[in-house]
Amino acid sequence: MKKYLAMMMALAMSLSLVACSSSSDSATTTTTTTTEATTEATTEATAEAEVFQVGVVQLVEHEALDAATQGFIDALEAALPGQVEVTVQNAQNDSATCSTIVNGFVSSDVDLIMCNATPALQAAVAATTTIPILGTSVTEYGVALGISDFTGTVGGNISGTSDLAPLDEQAAMLAEWFPDAETVGLLYCSAEANSQYQVDVVAAELEALGYACTLYSFSDSNDVASICTMAADESDVIYVPTDNTVASNTGIIYNICSPAGVPVIAGEEGICGGCGVATLSISYYDLGTGTAAMAAKILTGEADISTMAIEYAPAFTPKYNADICAELGLTAPEGYEAIV
Predict the structure, then answer these.
(1) Are 90 and 117 in contact (CB under 8 A)?
(2) What does the alpha-carbon distance between residue 171 and residue 166 come to, in Å, rounded to a whole number?
(3) Dihedrals φ, ψ of 121, to 5°?
(4) Structural domains for the chain
(5) I need a surface site. Which of 93, 211, 231, 309 has the fewest CB within 10 A?
(6) What DSSP character marks residue 63?
(7) DSSP classification of residue 221
(8) Please, which pLDDT band fits residue 35 given cuts at 50, 70 and 90?
(9) pTM assigned to the model
(10) Smallest Cα–Cα separation from 263: which of 175, 158, 162?
């Protein structure tokens, strides 16, 4: 009997140990599963909080382009708070420097490149076919990129926003201000393809209205003074398009045209504020915010850049430069806002 009891006790103890071992194995498996789930959740959270790298190349510093860049930065941060790091570099109006900047962005493998002005866009297009490229402050993408029969969508890795103003309405505005003028000089930088496009269109519109038009082109900032002087001597009114070199040299144009009593109609507000009497222009800050909205969709995968059409400013406002108008004895027609 004692042997039997001893055997029964040993068997009970053995069964107890097996049960404990089984319970321990089960707990270990559960802990491993929980750890894997936590790791997966952490990985997903890290992916959701990915910080996108965006490179901005701006051709030159002036009021319009500065406003577009700021609008882009502000709106992109608002759309993706804490998820974007933006690096801005300025090419100081040098196309070769645009290429250097863009190549640096490509080497850094940024997630998106925003190009502010036509030469910046052209440099980016030459540098990469894979990184998404958005342009802004680009007047006509077909002209800028040499696309014949442009339909509004570039395709590939390129899209953006345009600052193209209604050129026929700008010509009509000149006629509204100066119905008795006979000669119009169109002053622009020949190195900017979109400037050539604008003056060709405006000249045709003005000639249809009865004006005699002459194109005065300069190749860079060094020629602005001499060409502008010639234009002022030979014209009743001068028209300048949305042109980056003009925008950087409004002081020179003002110092020549104002003393000569020759008014300037400008393609955009920043230029008009420096040397013009009137403009029909857009908000470049708003243009930048529109570009940022496109960028946010591309970065988050909401939109495919290859199918995104070029977007245009929704509204144009007639404005006048009160100070220069007073100097020249001009009164703004009804409906114009003073440039602040």
Answers:
(1) no
(2) 9
(3) -65, -45
(4) 52-163+283-309 (3.40.50.2300), 167-281+317-338 (3.40.50.2300)
(5) 309
(6) H
(7) G
(8) very low
(9) 0.80
(10) 175
